[in-house]
Amino acid sequence: MQVISAIDTKILQTAAQQFSKAKLLPQSAVTRLFSPDNCTLLIPDGSTRRFFRVATGEPAGTDRSRVTSAVIVAPGKIDGESLAEAESTWRIGRHLGQRGAAVPQSYCWDRQSGIVVVEDLGQTRLYDFARRKDGEGAAGQEELIAKYEQVLEQLARLQIIGGRGFDSNWCWQGGKYDADLMIEKESGYFYRACWQDLLGNGKVCGIDLEFREIARRASQAPGHYFLHRDCQSRNIMLKNGDPVFIDFQGGRLGPLGYDVASLLIDPYCRLSPEIEQRLVERYCFFAGLLEPMDDSQFLGHYQYLALQRNMQIVGAFSFLYSKRRKPFFKEFILPSLAMLATRLEESCFADFPILKKTTDTALQQARKII
Fold first, then answer.
1. What is d(CA 80, CA 98) in angstroms, rounded to the nearest whole number?
2. CA torsion, ordered 341, 342, 348, 353, to nearest 10 deg
3. Per-residue pLDDT tens over the stretch 260-292
4. pLDDT tens, residue by residue, 235-254
5. For 232-272, where are the alpha helices, taking DSSP H only?
6. Which backbone phi and psi does 64 adopt, to 5 degrees?
7. Residue 315, class by beta-carbon neighbours within 10 Å (0-12 exposed, 13-18 middle, 19+ buried)?
């Protein structure tokens, strides 16, 4: 039996109090739902936040107003940054939900503790679905492609409809995806976390100039849409088979292509370049149903945004493995480096020989130590 600590009990009590104030259920039902006997601690991937599932075990049916389970999200510690992240979770989630985007219902939020209670979406992620279909041959691949098309259709709605009326003041890490962020949190992340910290290498002369030019080109894409910024298979739940996006609290305004790239070059699932191209074309169709699209312009920007995402992925996996001591991410470092090296072979990146050489060297070194 899982033991609930005194701190966990306090989290449950605070969540129950806020849930009661929201008047979503009769008090007797709230007491039963948030009982320690109905609580399970969930294990996150890279987050320092704490997650709990509360469930009575009763069937909810199709009525979303009949809440028989929920997920509690609590900061790992109470400080200004953690509380700001929690507020972003609440405010962005409420906005996206009101716009009809595929996100969990936001039930309540406690400003003092940073505790947020949201809809329980179950335990099946797009990642799990993709892993199951991976061994089912051609039929499984077509089912997987059909599921990705379903996800992309909802992603276009999340970005385009979700970007309307979006307030950048809700964002706790900055309200816009721009060149400065690309250099600090993506190309610079790759350079620091992988090249220097994980592999122990020194300074590479001239690479900063290439990073700036890549960011300049990527930042030419129109940036008034909602950008999830971590739209990958482990952040997409499948509830009754329908995709629902989670972990969007780092969202901001930005270009369409970044989230599409995040989904399609996700090392967790490793779609082939041929499938990636096919799905990019389907995304353009879905986005074009919501507003006029210049497909050729989108595809030109997509290449540079995908490169930015490639570098961010390598940096994140390197950091989580080497600094956060999370062994789960070790197996994805080599594939993500290989994907970055493969992308840099494309002719549009011929102007970046230093980055290409650095990536090739990093891949060779990583093969020896990972």
1. 27
2. 30
3. 999 999 999 999 999 999 999 999 999 999 999
4. 999 999 999 999 999 999 99
5. 256-264
6. -70, -15
7. buried
Q: How far is the C-alpha of 120 from the C-alpha of 101, rounded, in Å?
A: 16
**Rounded alpha-carbon distances, angstroms, from residue 56 to 30, 40, 324, 352:** 10, 11, 34, 56
Name the token pair of 152. Answer: 């992309």
Q: Are 103 and 96 in contact, with CB atoms under 8 Å apart?
A: yes
In sequence order, which residues have a C-beta less than 8 Å from that of residue 331 and are 6 or more positions away?
none
Place of tokens 């570098």: 311
Taking every pair of C-alpha atoms in the chain, what is the biggest distance, in angstroms? 66
Cβ contact 273:265 at 8 Å: no
Provide CB contacts within 8 A for 240, sequence distance 6+: none
Residue pair 70/83 in contact by the 8 Å Cβ criterion: no
Burial (0-12, 13-18, 19+ Cβ within 10 Å), 208: middle
Domains and CATH numbers, the chain: 6-119 (3.30.200), 126-369 (3.90.1200.10)
